[in-house]
Amino acid sequence: MKVLLIYPPFLNKRVSSDDVASIPIGLYHVAAVLRDAGHDAQVANWHMPNLDMAKAVQTIESFGPAVVGFSIVNGNRFGALDMAAMLKERNPNLTIVLGGIGATFLWEHFLTHFPQVDYAVVGEGEEAMASLVKCLEIGDSRGIAEIPGVAARVDGAPVLTEQKGYIRDIDALPRPSRFYKFQHLSLSRGCPHNCTFCGSPKFWGRTMRFHSADYFVRQLHTLAKSGEKFFYVSDDTFTLKKDLVIRVCKEIIEAGLDISWNAISRVDRVDEDILYWMRKAGCIQISYGVESGCETTRDMLNKNMSTQDILRAFELTTRFGILSRAYFIYGCQGEGPEVLQANLDLMDAIKPLGAVFYILDIFPGTRLYEEYVQKNNLTDDIWLKRVEDIMYWETDPALTQDLIEETGDALRNHFYRNLPDYVYSLQLENNPDLTMEHSDFYSRLGMTFTVGDYANDSRISNASGVGEFLFEKALTFAQDPRAYLGLGLLRQKCGQFEKALDILEKALELFPNDEQIRLCLGTNLMNLGAFGRALKHFELLPHLPGAIKYAEQCRACIAGSYR
After folding, report:
1. Beta-sheet strands, E only, within 2-66
2. Which domain holds residue 443?
3. Contacts of 499 (CB under 8 A, 6+ apart)
4. Which of 361, 395, 424 corresponds to the end of one domain?
5. Are 241 and 271 within one domain?
């Protein structure tokens, strides 16, 4: 049977789509189970708010699925509902299934108000979806009523079958990397913590299950062989099981995987050993939910961590050459000047090299949502309104939109204006075994200030100077090709082509197979009018579109000089 699984469009555009752009790993696991059962299961990532729905529907129809499943969170539920309505209008026999955290907490709401939805898979979806598709394939409507975790209409009313327990051995699931390419993957399922703004505790029941190191690394190995070199490890807390994480890291190293990856952790779940092995295995960034510098706010969010834990985690993470990123939440109860100052003070104390600032949202499945609907005698019908979320400040008379906007601006401005000072204060571990990693850390960070996210932000003073400092610092640890490339680019940008030439020619002697250095050297020679020499470099890069274009320009200039 043909099944198309879709990650549908969100309602709102974002300044950065990093938090919503990637298909949840669970959808790939569902697809892999279906493929393993012999179904033709395909996955589509259509999260973009400006998606051309009519064109998407045509694409779906050209595939010809019998079942279309949508993986939804709260923000993209209308993307799924709108697309499902269009599909049903054109093909009433098509089966529409909703799954994911959004369907888990609002299954009754969807089946009550939206006739285009046939079924909802509640909770962990692999076994339920596979059983549902099997029943649909053989026309066993009675069997559907016995599948644990499937919601349907019975006599027009939404009914949920009894939910089955969680999959105990998640290693028994087929590896999605056998069938699909992706960059997000996870080592575990669940989270033992109970933050008030998070739906994970209710979705997973705070039950923790882990893949083996072998399962996880085999996934990485397959994906790396297919060309993927960068990964996001999306566990709520990757470092919960220290021995397992270290075993994963050692297996990555033993397998010779040349990869880089980001992870998420809690500040009370890292130490020197785990950070050392993560860095050696290619981890370049860890994100921590510090949420607030105000302990009262952290208590309200049920974060259960001390300021001392926060300070220690950021100091250690930076020492081992891993970029530390902080998540802050504002717009909480009691927000005001004192809380803002506590956040600014914490920021200056931990000196994060990346920061994300969120307004506190209320979503179904969270304790904040339960308290909100109970206090105001509301129902899930509030989600009939086309909104992605409810902001906490909108429910608190003591908070205003102006205050929230001013707070957000103050937090972001403070971070970007002080980021150069955070960089200049970096102190890395004095460990000869980490010299290559330290050099990589400095040069990678340098690129963010010269050609990356920080390069053109007006709030950052002298971003190119910060980048130059970082590249030169990298070269004190090891001969790093990215550092040479960064310095060469900076000299070019300043019109110092002769100095750039010296740097890039030295770099190419050290790294003769580095295509980016060769390409940059070629463009630098063009700036010096040495088109013949430049052409020789571009002709060694016939597979690079940029090199092809520059080679044509060189030939034209050479031909013109002979006329």
Report:
1. 2-7, 40-45
2. 434-562
3. 491
4. 424
5. yes
**Residue 20 falls inside a structural domain:** yes
Pair (420, 483) in one structural domain: no
Tokens 């985690």, residue? 313
3-class SS of residue 153: strand
The residues, any chain, with a CB within 8 Å of residue 58's CB and separated by 6 or more, are: none
Query: Which ranges constitute the DSSP H helices of 303-353?
Result: 307-319, 337-350
**What would the two tokens of residue 493 be?**
């940008």
Closest CA to 317 of 284, 357, 364: 284
Looking at the structure, do residues 265 and 355 belong to the same domain, yes or no?
A: yes
User: Could you read off the pLDDT of 412-463 as tens digits, one per residue?
Assistant: 999 999 999 999 999 999 999 999 999 999 999 999 999 999 999 999 999 9
Identify whether 110 is part of a domain.
Answer: yes
Instruction: Say yes or no: 100 and 22 in one domain.
Output: yes
Picking from 424, 443, 458, the residue at the C-terminal end of a domain is 424
Number of domains present in the structure of the chain = 3
16 vs 43, 78, 252, 459, 508, CA distance in Å? 23, 20, 30, 17, 35
474: left (phi > 0), else alpha (psi -120 to 50), else beta? alpha
Say if pTM beats, i.e. exceeds, 0.90. yes
Confidence of residue 364 (pLDDT cuts 50, 70, 90): very high
State whether 188 and 148 are in the same domain: no
Residue 377 zone, left/alpha/beta (φ > 0; ψ -120 to 50; rest): left
Tell me the pLDDT tens digit for each residue of 98-146: 999 999 999 999 999 999 999 999 999 999 999 999 999 999 988 999 9
> Where residue 375 sits, what CATH number does that domain have?
3.20.20.70
Closest to 317 measured CA to CA, from 350, 347, 343: 350
Dist CA 446 CA 466 (whole Å): 7
Residues 333 and 250 in one domain: yes
| CA distance linking residue 253 with residue 259, whole number of Å | 10
Nearest to 325 by CA among 303, 358, 369, 368: 358
| CA 203 to chain centroid | 20
Question: Which pLDDT value is given to residue 18?
Answer: 66
DSSP string, 512-558: TT-HHHHHHHHHHHHHTT-HHHHHHHHTT-TT-HHHHHHHHHHHHHH
Instruction: Note whether residue 440 is domain-resident.
Output: yes
CATH number for 150: 3.40.50.280
Is residue 326 within 8 Å of 411, Cβ to Cβ? Answer: no
Per-residue pLDDT of 167-184, as tens digits, reads 999 999 999 999 999 999
Helix, strand, coil distribution of the chain in percent, nearest 5: 50, 15, 35
> Does one domain contain both 316 and 445?
no
Distance separating alpha carbons of residues 315 and 426, to the nearest angstrom: 9
Segment (H or E) for 96: strand 95-99
Mean pLDDT in residue range 527-532: 96
Cβ distance 318 to 324 under 8 Å? yes
**Residues found in the chain:** 563
- HEC profile of 407-418: HHHHHHHHHHHH
| Inside any domain, residue 176 | no
Please give the DSSP secondary-structure letter assigned to residue 183: S
* CATH number for position 438: 1.25.40.10
Return the axis-axis angle of helices 515-527 and 497-510, rounded to nearest 10°.
Answer: 150
